[in-house]
Amino acid sequence: MEITVLLERANSGSHESLSEAYALLYSEMRKIARGLLRERQGTLTPTVLVNETYMRLCGGALELESRKHFFATAAQAMRWIVMDHARRHLAERNGGGQVRVELNDEIVGQADDAALLSLDAALTKLGQIDPERRELVELRFFAGLSYADLADLLGRSERTLKREWAAARAALQVLME
């Protein structure tokens, strides 16, 4: 069944429809989480990340309208979960100095906690300046979507998205300094 139809039913009060949509997207979400956490060590595993994301998506009065909205919301939830985990880990180590970070497509999987928190602060600033580019960064970094997936999801060409990605990376680099 179409994800959008299931999400519409969930918005009408059918918790079973949201669970069914989540079940259909679960393997895709695990693949994204594995990529996101590829190089990271610790207690945050792909299963924990996907389940925590599900709890955040289903825990409130959230109305998910489409596949795009689902992935945009899931990417944002994953961002928050990874950042919360990084904050807790830094607090445990009693550290947390500023770090210069080079942005690449795999920063989340390879970066240390301080770099992730720097990225999070820069994304928040970018969201105030250009929400569409912040969404692009979240979907690319935190949902691990390819340019082809993004083109379908956002209704823009891959070429345009690559240009916007380059501009977003440059803006984030400036905002992280």
Q: What would your notes on this structure say?
A:
- There is one protein chain.
- The protein has helices at 3-11, 15-36, 46-59, 67-93, 107-110, 113-129, 131-142, 147-154, 158-176.
- It has 9 helices and no strands.
- Helix 4 packs across helix 7 and helix 6 packs antiparallel against helix 7.
Structure summary:
The chain has helices at residues 3-11, 15-36, 46-59, 67-93, 107-110, 113-129, 131-142, 147-154, 158-176.
Average the pLDDT over all residues and give the rounded result.
80
State which percent range the strand residues make up.
under 5%
Number of strands: 0
Q: With helices defined by DSSP (H or I, 4 residues minimum), what is the helix count?
A: 9
| Termini gap | 46 Å
Q: How are helices and strands ordered from N to C?
A: HHHHHHHHH
The biggest sheet amounts to: none
Low-confidence regions? 95-101
- Helical coverage, percent range: over 70%
| Radius of gyration, in angstroms, nearest whole number | 16 Å
Class by helix and strand content?
mainly alpha
- Please state the overall shape, judged from the principal axes of the Cα atoms: globular
List the helices and strands and how they pair.
Blueprint: H1 3-11, H2 15-36, H3 46-59, H4 67-93, H5 107-110, H6 113-129, H7 131-142, H8 147-154, H9 158-176
